[in-house]
Automatic annotation (TrEMBL):
Transmembrane parts of this sequence: none
Keywords: Hydrolase
Alphabetized PANTHER family for the sequence: 3-HYDROXYISOBUTYRYL-COA HYDROLASE, MITOCHONDRIAL, 3-HYDROXYISOBUTYRYL-COA HYDROLASE-RELATED
Designated name of the protein: 3-hydroxyisobutyryl-CoA hydrolase
Molecular function in Gene Ontology: hydrolase activity
Length: 353
């Protein structure tokens, strides 16, 4: 066991600096990190000497690969209420980042998935390094694109968010900038200098502009027509049919997307598509409430635990989804995940955590 803390807070010059410090675990987010980060952000929000917050990560492989899935799996299997508390606290942290009263700069490089997206995308400034690998891979473990995915994914260009949420497709630096996940692109080698400049000068707009790169090479723009054509359908079944029917220059790409989707949890696919449809119509905090409703049902189900078993624990990549096919997931089944809870997510008092 390391004596190093999982998360480090320091005040440097004008900035409060958060360092995610679990590099051997790809900086996976655990309950302790969430529990410590929220009150620290509150303290900095109320400290006139702190002009901005910077979030970075230790190691070179990942900003944050998501939540500590194995811990969550074990809590859920044991019926431990800690799993629900984790998601409540994480979603409250996401919401506080979204409404943070000071500039919030995430220096994002390497792997950023799931919970790591929640710690970055809702901030005012997101700087992507060239090693960035963004994905929302939740449907592959019987889960759903949460941490605000209900809000930000439908607001990416066209149907890009629906494509990302259903297929777990990965974006590199150029595409992250083009979609708007990142607000700036910079060389990974410049991240230390960016940190020092922000701490010294503040003024993230001007400071980041001095390091920003103008990129070409994004792949998503050329795919936008086929993404919009196929992923604008109202049902997962229709999306698959459109992908299967695609001809011409994007036929091979479409076939790969369809094959990928058919490996995912059928229940998760239908939940994720409904998220995109509902999330496009409501504001951020309502989206977080929707996600809390969904996760409260997911953790009482089957597919999440089976997905984690297949991908994380046994690594056989052969999940036994229940139901096994899309035809076994009815509209009423999906409706149940979105139904109100006796105890809805409370987003009051975020600035007093």
């Amino acid at each position: 066991m390391s004596d190093e803390p999982d998360i480090i807070f320091e005040t440097r010059g004008r900035a409060g600096v958060v360092t995610l410090n679990r590099p051997k675990a790809l900086n996976a987010l655990n309950s302790n990190m969430v529990a410590l980060m929220h009150p620290q952000l509150v303290a900095w929000a109320n400290d006139p000497k702190v002009e901005l917050v910077i979030v970075k990560a230790a190691g070179e492989k990942a900003f944050c690969a998501g939540g500590d899935i194995r811990q969550l799996h074990d809590w859920g299997k044991a019926g431990d209420p800690a799993i629900r508390s984790f998601y409540r606290d994480e979603y409250r942290l996401n919401a506080f980042i979204k409404r943070y009263p000071k500039p919030y700069v995430a220096l994002v490089d390497g792997i950023v998935m799931g919970g790591g997206v929640g710690l970055s995308v809702h901030g005012s400034h997101r700087v992507a390094g060239e090693k960035l690998m963004f994905a929302m891979p939740e449907t592959g473990i019987g889960f759903f694109p949460d941490v605000g995915g209900t809000y930000f994914l439908p607001r990416l260009p066209g149907r890009t968010g629906t494509w990302l949420g259903l297929t777990a497709a990965r974006l590199g630096q150029a595409d992250a900038l083009w979609t708007g996940f990142a607000t700036h692109a910079a060389r990974s080698a410049d991240f230390d200098a960016i940190l020092e400049a922000l701490c010294d000068k503040g003024d993230p707009d001007a400071t980041l502009a001095s390091f920003a790169q103008v990129l070409d090479g994004a792949k998503a723009p050329a795919l936008q027509p086929v993404i919009d054509r196929c992923f604008s359908a109202n049902t997962v079944e229709e999306i698959l049919a459109l992908l299967d029917a695609e001809t011409g220059e994007h036929a091979e790409w479409a076939a790969k997307q369809a094959a990928t989707m058919r490996q995912k949890s059928p229940t998760s696919l239908k939940i994720a598509l409904r998220q995109m449809q509902e999330g496009a119509k409501v504001e951020f905090e309502a989206c977080m409430g929707i996600e809390y409703r969904i996760v409260s049902r997911i953790i009482d189900g089957v597919d999440f635990y089976e997905g984690v078993r297949a991908v994380i624990i046994d690594k056989d990549n052969a999940p036994n989804w229940q139901p096994a096919g899309l035809d076994g997931v009815s509209t009423a089944d999906v409706d149940a995940y979105f139904a109100p809870l006796p105890d809805e997510l409370d987003l009051s008092g975020l600035d007093r955590a």
